[in-house]
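User: quick one, sequence for these tokens?
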């Protein structure tokens, strides 16, 4: 059965209810919900506040606005009493309620309503998984861009450190057997083999070289474990969420929990529906008790993941625009007929209805909608990067690598100093002179070796 959801003005028949205010001053009740009514210091602002101002100018009345005492929209309890804004209107505590209230048959019988000032439908909100994006570079998604830059820098520094250690350490530097030395090219080839868990010989013989090698192997193994674990997690999330595009998809899966505001019009819609899909959704929410107390709680749970929040599409659009990790499904019209347009039992009802139609025809309602609803995501963080690992997640691993490289260089220098002392003692010269000779021989030879490899 086709229908629509409408956000409406709810009010009692002014001729039959007692009032304490004058005919020209109305007591108006509303509820806090972004962007309809929000606090700015001691004042209220938002879509509904601007709408009330426009209606007051069109109809010609003054008003006093107050927030509903129990923070409820309005529902009928077992004793037959109404709560929330509808209850305040029926008890004469307010003349008018202006808020994102939805037309239902029960509410239609209890109060009089103006024509709707906003059309919307039902939808659900869930965490965006990036499945809607192109996957040409999907293999890079487990790590953030800064993380990949960090890995590249770590690779270059480790290769250079391996080359230096191999040149400095007496056990690695063998000028008589140049082919077995760790050249710059072989140093990078060796750590590349470790990064792919394959290895590449020959292996270092000195303690300093083995220390650098061990630290790099630990770095590589842990890095690959995090990469594949996060890649698998993101692929599973993609496969789970990409198939959930409608309420039927939502009801046919069990990987995501879902719910709506308890006692709200969305709950009433699923409860009273004879559609098998909607009945399964209601039965799931009853069985799992997955209702939330308010919209803010539903959005927070959707941001955490593993939960889809069902609500009015117009409100979910705002949440998706404010929180870049969320995405709204296709809109489903709710089952409410056009009989939501009010009977002409009150002059105020007639005047308000005409005023709303005039605002709609003049484009003022569209202007207010554009003013208070962002057109696109305003967040800084991209939704797909929410699950990526950054440098802040792997600081300890990079710190371990840095300490290992520094310790390896220190041990290599100590090995060389030890040899220089022996040579100085045998050659009867100073230790510094012997150390300078050894360093000059190694790195002058290293440069020549690299030049020969380049020419080859």
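Assistant:
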């Amino acid at each position: 059965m086709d229908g629509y959801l409408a956000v409406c003005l709810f009010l009692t028949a002014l001729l039959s209810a007692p009032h304490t205010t004058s005919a020209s001053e109305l007591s108006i009740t509303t509820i806090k919900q972004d962007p309809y009514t929000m606090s700015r210091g001691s004042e209220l602002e938002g879509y509904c506040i601007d709408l009330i101002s426009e209606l007051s100018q069109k109809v010609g009345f003054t008003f006093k606005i107050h927030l509903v005492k129990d923070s409820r929209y309005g529902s009928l309890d077992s004793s037959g009493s109404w709560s929330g804004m509808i209850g305040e209107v029926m008890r004469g505590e307010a003349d008018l309620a202006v808020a994102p209230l939805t037309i239902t048959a029960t509410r239609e019988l209890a109060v009089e309503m103006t024509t709707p000032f906003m059309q919307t439908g039902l939808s659900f909100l869930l965490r965006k998984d990036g499945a809607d994006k192109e996957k040409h570079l999907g293999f890079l998604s487990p790590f953030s861009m800064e993380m990949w830059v960090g890995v590249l820098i770590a690779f270059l520094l480790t290769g250079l450190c391996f080359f230096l250690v191999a040149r400095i350490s007496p056990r690695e530097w063998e000028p008589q057997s140049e082919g077995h030395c760790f050249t710059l090219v072989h140093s990078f080839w060796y750590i590349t083999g470790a990064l792919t868990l394959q290895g590449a010989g020959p292996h270092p013989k000195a303690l300093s070289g083995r220390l650098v090698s061990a630290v790099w192997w630990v770095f590589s193994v842990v890095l690959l474990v995090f990469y594949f674990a996060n890649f698998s997690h993101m692929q599973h999330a993609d496969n789970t969420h990409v198939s959930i595009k409608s309420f039927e998809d939502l009801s046919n899966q069990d990987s995501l929990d879902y719910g709506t505001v308890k006692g709200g019009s969305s709950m009433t819609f699923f409860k009273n529906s004879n559609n098998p899909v909607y009945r399964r959704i209601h039965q799931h929410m009853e069985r799992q008790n997955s209702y939330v107390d308010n919209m803010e709680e539903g959005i927070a749970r959707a941001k955490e993941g593993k939960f889809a929040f069902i609500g009015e599409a117009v409100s979910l659009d705002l949440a998706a625009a404010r929180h870049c990790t969320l995405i709204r499904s296709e809109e489903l019209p709710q089952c409410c007929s056009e009989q939501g347009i009010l009977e002409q039992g009150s002059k105020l009802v007639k005047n308000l209805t005409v005023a709303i139609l005039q605002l709609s025809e003049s484009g003022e309602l569209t202007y207010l909608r554009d003013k208070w609803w962002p057109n696109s995501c305003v967040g800084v963080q991209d939704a797909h990067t929410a699950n990526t690992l950054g440098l802040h997640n792997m600081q300890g691993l990079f710190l371990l690598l840095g300490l290992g490289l520094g310790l390896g260089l220190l041990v290599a220098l100590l090995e060389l100093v030890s040899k220089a002392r022996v040579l100085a003692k045998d050659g009867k010269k100073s230790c510094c002179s012997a150390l300078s000779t050894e360093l000059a021989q190694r790195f002058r030879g290293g440069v020549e070796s690299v030049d020969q490899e380049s020419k080859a």
